[in-house]
Amino acid sequence: MRSKKALVGLLAPPLLWLVVAYLGALFAIFATALFTTDPFTNEVVRTLTTENIKALFDPTYLRIIGRTILIAVAVTVLCIVIAVPFAFFMARVAPARIRGLLVAAVLVPLWASYLVKAYAWRTVLQPNGVLDSTFGTTPGFGLAAVVLTLTYLWLPYMILPVYAGFERLPVSHLEASADLGARGLATFRRVVLPSLLPSIAAGTIFTFSLSLGDYIAVQIVGGKLQVLGTAVLQNITLDLPFAAALGTASVVIMVAYLLAVRRTGALDNL
Amino acid sequence: MRLGLGGKLGFGVFAAVVLAFIYVPIGVVTINSFNSDRTFGWPPPGFTTEWWSAALQAPGPRDALLTSVKAGLGATALALVLGSLLALALTRYEFFGKHAISILVVLPIALPGIVTGIALQSVIANVLDPVFGINAGLFTIIVGHATFCIVVVFNNVTARLRRAGASLEAASADLGARPFMTFRLVTFPLLRSAVLAGALLAFALSFDEIVVTTFTAGPGTPTLPIWIFNNLFRPNQAPVVNVVAVILVAISILPVWLAQRLGGSTAAESRL
Question: The pTM is what?
Answer without folding.
Answer: 0.84
